[in-house]
C-alpha cells in the first residue's frame, strides 16, 4: 500500500541511501588506505593490486552465487544478514596483524557489501516505482558522498594511535547501527503504480539489454577501480605530490552533483548514458599530460564528474529490461562490475611495469571510449 506522510514514505529510502553511503565509504576508505596498508605489510605495487583485487573478487562472486536469492526469500532478510556480516568483517580487519588475515577480512567485507549494493538498489526500484529513475541518481550520489568522506577519515585516522584500523572501527560501528535500523523497518512498497504490476512483469527479462548494461559496467568499474586504487601512487610518482588522497576525494566529490543532476534530468538518460563515459575517457587521457598538482586536481574533478553519470544512467534501464526481476538483473550488473574491477585492478601492476603510469592510464582511457560506444546502443534496444 502507498504511504502518505514524508517519513512513512521515505523511511525505507533513507535506509537504502545510508546502506549505499557506507558502501562508498568503505570503498573510498580502502582505496585511500591501501598505500598505508601496503607500507605496514611491506607490499609492492603489484602485491597491493592483488590485495585490492581480493575485495573486488568477493564483489564479483557474491551476486554470482546469491544473485537471484533476494527475489525469492525477500530483500529485508538479505539486507539484515549481510549488513550484520559487515560488522564481523570490520572486526577481523582491525585484528589483522599480517596480510593473509587482512585479506580474509576484506574478502568478507567485499562479499557482504556487494550483496547490500544490489539488494538496496533493487529494493529502491521496487518500493518507489513512480520516482525510481530520479532516485537512482540520488542513491548512487550517496555512494559518491561516502567515498568522498572516507579518504578524509583515513587521513585523520592516520594521525591517531590506531592508524588505518581506526577507519574500519568507525565503519563497523555504523554497520551495527544500520543493522538495527533495517531490522526495525517494514519493507512494503511506498508508492503504487496505476497499472497492474503483473502486466509489467509478464514481459519477462530482456537478455540482450541486460547484457549491454553488464558490459558497460564491466568496462567502467574496472577502469574506475584501476584509477582510484593507484591515483595516490600516480600523483607521487609523476608529480611528486603526497596529496593523492585529496585528489581521490575530489574525484568522488565531483560525482555527487553529477549524480544528483542525472536524477533531475533522468528524461535525458538516452544521451547521458553515452556522454558520461566518453567525457571520462577524454579527462583521463588529459590527466596523463598534467604538468602540475593543481592541474591534476582540476582534471581529476572533471573526470569524477563524467564518471559519476555512468552508473545512475545504467540503473535507469534496469526496470526496462528486468521484467519484474529487479534484484536478479541488478545482481548481474554487480557481477559484471566485480569482474571488471577484479581483472583490471589485478593487471594494473603489470600495465604499470610495462608502460608506466602514463601508458597504463591511457589504456584505461581507451577502454572508457569503448564503453561510450557500447552505451550508445542501449537506448536503441527495444524489449
Automatic annotation (TrEMBL):
Every Major facilitator superfamily (MFS) profile domain range: 12-383
Domain of life per record: Bacteria
Membrane-topology annotation of the record: Multi-pass membrane protein
Molecular function as annotated in GO: transmembrane transporter activity
Keywords recorded for this protein, A-Z: Membrane, Transmembrane, Transmembrane helix, Transport
InterPro entries attached to this UniProt entry: MFS, MFS_dom, MFS_trans_sf, MFS_Transporter
Annotated TM spans: 12-37, 49-70, 77-96, 102-124, 136-158, 164-183, 210-232, 244-265, 272-290, 296-319, 331-351, 357-378
Single GO cellular component term: plasma membrane
Protein name, UniProt field: MFS transporter
Amino acid at each position: 500500500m502507498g504511504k502518505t506522510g514524508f517519513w512513512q514514505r521515505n523511511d525505507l529510502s533513507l535506509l537504502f541511501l545510508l546502506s549505499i553511503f557506507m558502501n562508498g565509504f568503505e570503498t573510498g576508505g580502502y582505496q585511500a588506505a591501501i598505500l598505508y596498508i601496503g607500507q605496514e605489510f611491506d607490499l609492492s605495487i603489484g602485491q597491493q593490486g592483488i590485495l585490492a583485487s581480493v575485495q573486488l573478487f568477493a564483489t564479483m562472486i557474491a551476486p554470482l552465487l546469491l544473485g537471484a536469492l533476494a527475489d525469492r526469500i525477500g530483500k529485508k532478510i538479505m539486507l539484515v544478514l549481510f549488513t550484520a556480516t559487515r560488522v564481523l568483517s570490520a572486526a577481523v580487519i582491525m585484528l589483522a596483524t599480517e596480510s593473509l588475515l587482512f585479506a580474509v577480512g576484506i574478502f568478507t567485507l567485499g562479499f557482504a557489501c556487494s550483496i547490500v549494493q544490489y539488494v538496496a538498489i533493487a529494493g529502491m526500484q521496487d518500493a518507489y516505482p513512480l520516482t525510481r529513475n530520479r532516485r537512482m541518481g540520488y542513491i548512487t550520489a550517496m555512494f559518491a558522498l561516502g567515498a568522498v568522506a572516507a579518504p578524509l577519515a583515513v587521513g585523520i585516522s592516520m594521525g591517531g594511535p590506531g592508524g588505518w584500523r581506526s577507519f574500519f572501527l568507525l565503519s563497523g560501528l555504523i554497520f551495527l547501527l544500520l543493522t538495527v535500523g533495517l531490522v526495525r523497518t517494514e519493507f512494503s512498497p511506498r508508492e503504487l503504480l496505476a497499472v497492474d504490476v503483473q502486466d509489467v512483469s509478464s514481459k519477462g527479462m530482456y537478455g540482450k539489454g541486460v547484457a549491454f548494461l553488464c558490459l558497460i559496467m564491466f568496462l567502467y568499474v574496472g577502469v574506475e577501480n584501476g584509477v582510484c586504487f593507484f591515483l595516490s601512487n600516480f600523483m607521487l610518482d609523476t608529480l611528486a605530490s603526497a596529496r593523492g588522497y585529496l585528489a581521490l576525494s575530489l574525484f568522488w566529490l565531483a560525482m555527487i552533483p553529477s549524480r544528483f543532476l542525472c536524477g533531475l534530468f533522468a528524461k535525458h538518460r538516452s544521451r547521458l548514458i553515452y556522454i558520461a563515459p566518453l567525457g571520462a575517457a577524454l579527462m583521463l587521457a588529459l590527466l596523463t599530460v598534467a604538468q602540475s598538482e593543481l592541474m591534476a586536481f582540476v582534471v581529476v574533478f572533471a573526470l569524477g564528474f563524467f564518471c559519476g553519470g555512468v552508473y545512475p544512467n545504467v540503473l535507469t534501464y534496469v526496470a526496462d529490461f528486468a521484467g519484474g526481476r529487479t534484484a536478479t538483473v541488478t545482481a548481474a550488473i554487480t557481477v559484471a562490475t566485480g569482474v571488471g574491477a577484479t581483472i583490471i585492478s589485478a593487471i594494473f601492476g603489470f600495465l604499470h611495469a610495462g608502460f608506466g603510469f602514463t601508458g597504463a592510464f591511457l589504456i584505461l582511457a581507451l577502454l572508457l571510449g569503448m564503453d561510450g560506444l557500447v552505451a550508445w546502443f542501449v537506448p536503441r534496444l527495444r524489449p
